[in-house]
Every structure is written in C-alpha cells, then in structure tokens.
Design goal:
With about 350 residues, the protein is of the alpha+beta class. The chain has 13 helices and 7 strands. About 50% of the residues lie in helices and about 15% in strands. The longest helix has 26 residues. The radius of gyration is 24 Å and the shape is elongated. The termini are far apart.
Length: about 350
C-alpha cells in the first residue's frame, strides 16, 4: 500500500478487473504476489493491511491500517463480523495488493467493524458489550457509533472500495491460538477458567491484570451470543454470564479509580435489566466517588427495593457518601472564599 504507491492496474482483458464469482464484488490486482497460492482452511490465520475508501470522485479514505502501523488479523471460519473480507483475502497470494469494489450488500456491517478497529488503534476497549438487538435492522439503528463518518455510513449504507495487502498466512498448527481465534465450544470452556483467573488476580490486588482476564472472558461470551436469537433462553443464559463478568470488571475499575467508566458499563446493564441489583450497587459506589449525591442515593434506594438484605451495606456506603459530601463542601468553601 503506502510503500508501493502509486499502484498500477495489471493489464488483462478486463482492464485488471475480475469478478470473484460472488455477486457484488469486483477485484483489481494492483501488485501481484510472488508466492504460490496459499492454502486457506478453517483456522488459518491471515495477516493483512487494509485501506477503506468511499466511491466518490476523491476516493475518500475512511480507514487505513498503515496509518496506525498495525496490520489486521482474522481467522478463517471464525465468523468475523465482516465475512466478505474472508472471501476477498482467500482470493489473494502473499505479497499481493488488490482493490475490491463491494456493493452495499457486503458493506452494511463495516461501520460496526470500523468502530472496533478505531478503538483498538486509540488504545480503548473495542467491545460493545451491551448492544442488544432483535434483528439486523435494529443493529443499524441502535445509537451513535461515536464517529461522524461511520454514523453517516450506518444511516446510509453504500458501496466501498477495500484495498488489501496480504502479508502473512499461518496454518492452525503454526501459531498459538488466542481466545478470539477459538471456536465457540472452546470459547465456552475458556470462560470459567478466565473468570477464575480474574478473581484470583483481584484478590492479589492485581486489578489491571484481572480486568484483562474478565474482558477476555466477556469477548468469548459476546462472540457466541451474537449468533443466538436475542432474549431467548440460550441468549439470556449468556447474557447473565456476561453481566456477572462485567460487574466483576467494574469492581476492578472502582479500585483503579475509573469511576465514569464504571457508571457507563453499569448503566448499560441497568438499561437492559432494571432488576439487576448489583449493577445499581456498583454504580452507586461510583457515584459516591464523583460527588453525584442525588444519583448515589437513588441507586442505593433502588438496591434496598430489590434486596432489603443489603441494608447494612447500604447504610455503610451512605455514611461514606455523607463524609465525601462534607469534605467537598469544605473544599468548596475554601476554594470560593473571598470571591464574593
């Protein structure tokens, strides 16, 4: 890509354009690979760079992995959200650079994928743990993605160009499989192990390490859950597991003083499951730390409505809230003394 620009289309009877036998795709080879055609099987890991462009006169670049310097990896057969990329990549040789025009039937999920990739590049958590939808149409309308250009693509799906450079192909026996590369059965087995490891690390005071274990377990669950029908029994079972892990994750964040992130995650749970007592309790504790007095009191009141047995714990936390507010009031008096 960047190191081989400007690209030139390879000559052929179709001006370098080939149909892949899949409706709505056109391929143009920009730089031919030198190796033999790789063997692609279920479990093959593919490493590649990508550039996404609009089909406007300027070929506006939306995303470019070479800007971040981090190539993309997918495992063949693992239900990557943008499945069409598997089709494109398995038509390529190592070292090849190709441009693919894909019509809207293949690009509708790109905004969601791009959001995750951008968050990774920004050092943020890529996972939308609490997107709930009962169908594909709802997925496109649930809320803003946090990026104006992706919001526009989500509202008005359109054809896109993908320029891909195939960097490396590894067979299943040639790399150590991380949780994202597992199949569903392996992911489900990994969840209790990761949960246990997270709990152990939490007890040792290694909160950052614990969050990594909890996040990995949550990702395993969500990768399985999105294949189930929302709100039916298998989906709800996974949802319960995911919420429990998310609340453990939030307990770590409390210790790490990431209070606003705790409020965000617990609010997501509460919006979907307003009877989840522990979510109200954890959110209330976060509100205490950022001096949200009314919000904290409302959350603790809800905790007692849901579980009167929490009276002793809530009384203790309300004592902490009163102390925090007294401290803040004294600080404010000193801060504003003499201003009026």
């Amino acid at each position: 890509m960047e190191d081989r620009q400007p690209y030139r289309k390879m000559s052929s009877d179709m001006d370098g354009t080939m149909l892949l036998g899949v409706e709505g795709i056109k391929k143009t080879i920009l730089y031919g690979g030198t190796a033999e055609m790789p063997r692609f099987i279920t479990g093959t890991k593919v490493t590649f760079h990508f550039r996404t462009q609009l089909c406007d006169d300027d070929r506006t670049v939306i995303d470019d992995s070479k800007v971040t310097g981090v190539p993309m990896e997918v495992v063949i057969g693992n239900m990557f959200k943008l499945e069409i990329w598997e089709t494109l990549l398995t038509s390529m040789r190592i070292g090849e650079v190709a441009e693919f025009w894909c019509d809207v039937t293949h690009t509708g999920l790109y905004p969601l994928v791009a959001k995750s990739l951008r968050r990774i590049a920004e050092g943020k958590d890529p996972v939308d743990w609490h997107i709930h939808s009962c169908g594909m149409a709802n997925m496109f309308a649930y809320h803003t993605l946090g990026y104006d250009d992706l919001d526009q693509l989500q509202k008005e799906p359109q054809p896109l160009y993908f320029v891909l450079e195939l960097v490396k192909v590894q067979q299943p026996s040639e790399y150590d499989r991380e949780s994202w590369a597992l199949n569903d059965e392996e992911r489900l087995k990994a969840v209790p192990l990761l949960h246990g490891q997270g709990n152990k690390l939490y007890k040792l005071g290694r909160y950052q390490d614990a969050t990594n274990k909890y996040k990995e377990a949550i990702v395993c669950i969500k990768n399985i859950q999105h294949k189930e029908k929302a709100w039916e029994a298998p989906w709800l079972k996974l949802e319960k597991m995911g919420n429990m892990l998310t609340l453990n994750y939030c307990q770590c964040l409390l210790r790490m003083e990431e209070y606003y992130e705790v409020i965000e995650h617990t609010s997501d749970i509460i919006n979907q499951h307003p009877g989840e007592m522990k979510a109200f309790y954890v959110r209330g504790k976060a509100h205490i730390e950022v001096w949200n007095e009314a919000e904290a009191r409302a959350d603790f009141e809800r905790v007692l409505d849901l579980d009167p047995g929490m009276k002793k714990a809530v009384k203790r936390d309300l004592g902490v809230l009163n102390m925090r507010m007294e401290e803040k009031n004294e600080e404010d008096k000193v801060k504003y003394k003499g201003m009026f």
